Each structure stands twice: as structure tokens, then as C-alpha cells.
């Protein structure tokens, strides 16, 4: 990822640049730097939720397809609907998979670490804590998100 100049404004994601929340307005007001940072964090949170709720099309890449692991065919998580999340080994495997997917497909975050709080009950879901550094200038900004995998539906909710 190219590093922007220190005086360059934070660049929203491609999706955020394509969405026009005020189509009747011909010019957009420039938000303050702190507002842009909060907006960027919200954008990352939303995109993390989309990533974690997407399922891969490929279980494993075909032979000779060296770029497949970083392509849209591998975007998201593998299907884990058959996995027993009451098993601690399966939960740990899912934690690693979540961490790898974020590291691979969310370029705005670096030094990603996903942890699972100890002693959490499985009644409603499996909780994850996502921590990393948001790539902004002049220095990376620490961020963290709390995520819950809801057991009945197997969907993720990501919160600030």
C-alpha cells in the first residue's frame, strides 16, 4: 500500500468514494481531520463485518493458481456451519482463520491480532477482539473492534 504524504487527507475506501450520501449537493464539505479518522474507523468496522460474513467460493485454490489465495475467490471465511464451536480447538481454528482473513483482505489494518476473551459463555455467541494499527499518517492509529459470532445464525456483528 502506498504511503500518503503527511499533509494528504485520509483517503476513503473505493466503496465510500462511490457512495453519494447527498446526491443533490454538487460539492462536499471537507470534514475535520478527527472527523475523517472516525469516519475511516467506521468504514473499516463496516468492511470487517462484510468480510467476516462472506463465505469463500474456493475451499482451496486449484493447482498452479498462485494468486487465488489473495483473489476474490478466496475473500471471506470458509464455511464453518458444520463446525462445533463448543470445541475449544475448533474455536481456536476459527480465531486463526478470522485473523488470517483480516490480515489478507483488509489493507488499511496492519499488525492484526484477534483474541477470544477467556471464560466467555457460549450461550449467545463466540466473542472475538480484533486489534490492529490503522494505516494513517503521520503515524498508525491503534484500533480495536469487538465482534460476536451469533450462534443461531452464524453471522458476525462487529462493534467499535
TrEMBL record:
Pfam families hit by this protein: GPW_gp25
Domain IraD/Gp25-like: 39-138
Domain of life: Bacteria
InterPro entries referenced in this protein's UniProt entry, alphabetically: IraD/Gp25-like, T6SS_TssE1-like, TssE1-like
Gene3D superfamilies given in the database record: 3.10.450.40
Descriptive protein name: Gene 25-like lysozyme
Amino acid at each position: 500500500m502506498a504511503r500518503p504524504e503527511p499533509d494528504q487527507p485520509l483517503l476513503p475506501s473505493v466503496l465510500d468514494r462511490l457512495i453519494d450520501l447527498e446526491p443533490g449537493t454538487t460539492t462536499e464539505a471537507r470534514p475535520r481531520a478527527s472527523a475523517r479518522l472516525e469516519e475511516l474507523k467506521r468504514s473499516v468496522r463496516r468492511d470487517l463485518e462484510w468480510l467476516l460474513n462472506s463465505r469463500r467460493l474456493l475451499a482451496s485454490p486449484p493447482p498452479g493458481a498462485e494468486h487465488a489465495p489473495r483473489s476474490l475467490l478466496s475473500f471471506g471465511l470458509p464455511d464453518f456451519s458444520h463446525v462445533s464451536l463448543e470445541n475449544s480447538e475448533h474455536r481456536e481454528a476459527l480465531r486463526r482463520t478470522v485473523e488470517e482473513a483480516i490480515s489478507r483482505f483488509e489493507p488499511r489494518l496492519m499488525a492484526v491480532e484477534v483474541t477470544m476473551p477467556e471464560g466467555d459463555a457460549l450461550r449467545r455467541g463466540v466473542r472475538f477482539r480484533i486489534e490492529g494499527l490503522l494505516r494513517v499518517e503521520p503515524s498508525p492509529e491503534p484500533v480495536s473492534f469487538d465482534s460476536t459470532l451469533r450462534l443461531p445464525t452464524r453471522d458476525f456483528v462487529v462493534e467499535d
